[in-house]
Amino acid sequence: MKLSRIALLFIAVAISAPLNAQIFHNLEFSGGWTHSTGNNGLDGFNVGTGVWFTRRVEVAFNFDHIHDTTALAEFALTGGLITTKNSLQNYLIGPRVFFGSKSVKILHTLQPFGEFQIGGSHLHSEVSQVGASTQRVSDNAGTWLLGGGGDVVFSRHWAGRINLDLLRTHFVDAGQSRLRIVFGVAYTMGNRKIE
């Protein structure tokens, strides 16, 4: 009985080692600057990771942290300075499908893609006025994203990335549509060349 457990453990380790090496070889890490419309326009950063299943299909996870602080100076003389602070975090996962490469002289190789992701978002807003108490509100919501972009491949592992997406959030039982733009870089453990 003990020998069969050891044999079973040995087989499991022997099978999983190449699978783990293959998944590690297909990993991608990315990051960059993000802008989203809505709430006076929000700016921040994006980090992500992905796993390549084929040379054209990747499942990607993205996290955005974007924020803005705005002073409404036009009301400062009548009622005191009013300041708004907004912070939005998005957690999204879904497929990214790459299309055929296009050779561009200056940009080396351009690889366009389309993507659809689903997940959740957290919005936190504050409104404060001199001489009055600060009002705070936050909400969590389901979110989906539909869009695309392109990778400019610089080497086997490095690429510049631009995304242009429709981000749909559902805060306070109502839908909000936002334009999301990401400028960043991506590092892939394996070779990025798409045939």
Characterise the protein shown here:
The chain is 14% helix and 63% strand. The protein has an eight-stranded antiparallel β-barrel with strand order 1-2-3-4-6-7-8-9. The mean pLDDT is 82. The longest helix is centred in the first third of the chain and has 24 residues, at 2-25. The protein has one domain: Porin (Beta Barrel), CATH 2.40.160. It has 195 residues and is mostly beta strands.
List the helices and strands and how they pair.
Blueprint: H1 2-25, E1 27-36, E2 42-52, E3 57-72, H2 76-79, E4 82-98, E5 102-104, E6 108-129, E7 135-153, E8 158-169, E9 176-188
Antiparallel strand pairs: 1-2, 1-9, 2-3, 3-4, 4-6, 5-6, 6-7, 7-8, 8-9
| Count of discrete alpha- or pi-helical segments spanning 4 or more residues | 2
Number of domains: 1
> Can you tell me the CATH class?
Mainly Beta
The largest sheet is: 8 strands, antiparallel, barrel
Structural class: mainly beta
Please state the second-level CATH architecture. Beta Barrel
| Spatial shape | elongated
**Quick one: how many beta strands?**
9
Weakly predicted, low-confidence segments:
none
Descriptors for this entry?
single chain, 195 residues, Porin, eight-stranded antiparallel beta barrel, 2 helices, 9 strands
